[in-house]
Amino acid sequence: xxxxxxxxxxxxxxxxxxxxxxxxxxxxxxxxxxxxxxxxxxxxxxxxxxxxxxxxxxxxxxxxxxxxxxxxxxxxxxxxxxxxxxxxxxxxxxxxxxxxxxxxxxxxxxxxxxxxxxxxxxx
Length: 123
Fold this sequence. Notes:
- By secondary structure, the protein is an all-beta fold.
- The protein has strands spanning 3-7, 10-13, 18-25, 33-39, 45-51, 58-60, 68-73, 78-83, 92-99, 112-113, 117-122.
- Strands 2, 4, 5, 6, 9, 10 and 11 form a 7-stranded mixed beta sheet that branches. Strands 1-3-8-7 form a 4-stranded antiparallel beta sheet, with no helix packed on it.
- A hairpin with a 5-residue loop joins β4 (33-39) and β5.
């Protein structure tokens, strides 16, 4: 079992930045690939980025357009999502997820989810 708690969301103006964090507990963090998803009102959950177990590999959705960076600190059991040049279209609830395999973009490939953190970007 892995318990995930996101933090760092909030209200930011367009063009601004936020850094989300996801703290894990309950199991060996480095046994899991980690990912970030988001869900806007009325839409499905969208894959954003994933990172390998030891942080040596990352994969991003095209929608991040080089604006987002995923990273992890296995010593601190935390995964991060640095978001720059935010746009109103980035407004959503952001979720972190943990899974046993790396490189997946589908929600069904992830076993554990956080409760989400709201990001609101004003124009």
